[in-house]
Amino acid sequence: MAAPRHPSSLLLSLHVALLLLLLLLAVPCSCQVGESCSSARDCGVGLYCGNCAATGRTQPSCIRDLAIQPTSVVILRVRGLPFNRYTWLVTHNSFSILGEPSRTGVERVTFYNQEDSITNQLRNGVRGLMLDMYDFNDDIWLCHSLQGQCYNFTAFEPAVDTLKEVEAFLSENPTEIVTIFIEDYVRSPMGLSKVFTAADLMKYWYPISEMPTNGKEWPSVTDMVAKNRRLLVFTSDPSKQASEGIAYQWSYLLENESGDPGIVPGACPNRKESQPLNSRSASLFLQNYFPTIPVENEACKENSVGLPQMVQACYAAAGNRIPNFIAVNFYMRSDGGGVFDVQDRINGLTLCGCNTIAACQAGAPVGACKNIGTPNRTSPSSSSSSFSSSVNGNVYSGTIEFKTHHSGASSTSTRSSFLLLLSVLLTLKLF
């Protein structure tokens, strides 16, 4: 008959088992884009755990949330190209943030287009912001409204608060360039100039006198950074160019139609204020891709399936010109790579002849691409598009603010803390 085990031996065995379990919980996994997950901690750096029922992906998988800045990739041949040679990510109605508390004391009744803060958008690689500015409460406010009038139930916040977030980002990141597109309903004299001055942004201002016209090249990003001219601002009001020195958008950019009228299969109609997309009168091209009425749960499909197809159509309509800005709703929503993969694809092909910018190599000739491993999975619906390839998810490190993703990480942290406490108590009991 076997001798009974000593209680201390049982405690020691339990202690070891708990420590092993704690170790498993404490070490994050590194699942890549498209691989199954149960929480954000299962995914590699720069990914979060989500799904996209709109494309049939109902099981949670790892999804990208961060852009690779084209100017940050160490490629000697392309560092410091003209500003108009790159493609940047833009958020449509950047300020219209789901869950943003009312600042007027009245419940807001409007549509929402994004779901994380301006600061977080910039940290995740967004470099263009679309802001609707109105006169409201004796100040300039960001408002998602109608008929040129801001109401207390459509207002978000004073514009200066958002602009201060931009200033903080530019101050903390001295090599980054940000572009602001203003849908301008401000009628107060010098209203825009005052709000940008109040936000301390004039020190970064790119002067209109040096903006290229007639389709000429922009200065290099290296030159813009060296001169600290890292903020481009465009307005939809032509009068502001003369009265406040703010560039009238369609004198310097071509733009396709926004909203539902712009979503035409196989086509890319230009916005009525813009010159035709194949015109060479401007050297910047803003491509919109978002529906008139934003639907959060549909955005993942829009950014994964429709967007790559639209990029291809607009590329042809613009006479084989790449978009310099890609504007979308809910930019982090996709079934894998989304707008980030599209941006990487365009910048890779443009800058080094590779199918993603992550494959570009320092000093290498065009087309000499490094092997970055097996591409991450993308939507079967978009895999046929020439702008749909993915890159290795481990190279990113973004920030997630989705409220729905906090609970999983929080519960895991709670379980880990409990096991650690129990382990300590057992140790004290043993010794």
What does this 3D model show about the protein?
With 431 residues, the protein is α/β, with parallel strands linked by helices. 29% of the residues lie in helices and 15% in strands. It has ten helices and twelve strands. It has helices spanning 7-26, 118-123, 159-172, 191-198, 221-226, 239-243, 249-252, 296-317, 338-351, 403-430; strands at residues 47-52, 57-64, 88-91, 126-136, 139-143, 155-158, 178-185, 231-235, 247-248, 253-255, 284-288, 325-328. Helix 1 runs antiparallel to helix 10. The longest helix has 28 residues, at 403-430. It is globular and about 80 Å long. The two termini are 29 Å apart.
**What is the count of helical runs?**
10
Helix content: 25-40%
Number of DSSP strand runs: 12
Oligomeric form of this entry?
single chain
**Largest sheet composition:** 10 strands, mixed
Low-confidence stretches: 374-431
Molecular shape: globular
Ends distance:
29 Å
- Give the percentage of residues in beta strands: 15-25%
Q: Strand-and-helix sequence, N→C?
A: HEEEHEEEHEHHEHEHEEHEHH
Mean pLDDT value:
84
Helix and strand composition category:
alpha/beta
* Rg, alpha carbons: 25 Å
Task: Reconstruct the topology from this structure.
Blueprint: H1 7-26, E1 47-52, E2 57-64, E3 88-91, H2 118-123, E4 126-136, E5 139-143, E6 155-158, H3 159-172, E7 178-185, H4 191-198, H5 221-226, E8 231-235, H6 239-243, E9 247-248, H7 249-252, E10 253-255, E11 284-288, H8 296-317, E12 325-328, H9 338-351, H10 403-430
Parallel strand pairs: 3-4, 3-12, 4-7, 7-8, 8-9, 10-11, 11-12
Antiparallel strand pairs: 1-2, 4-5, 5-6
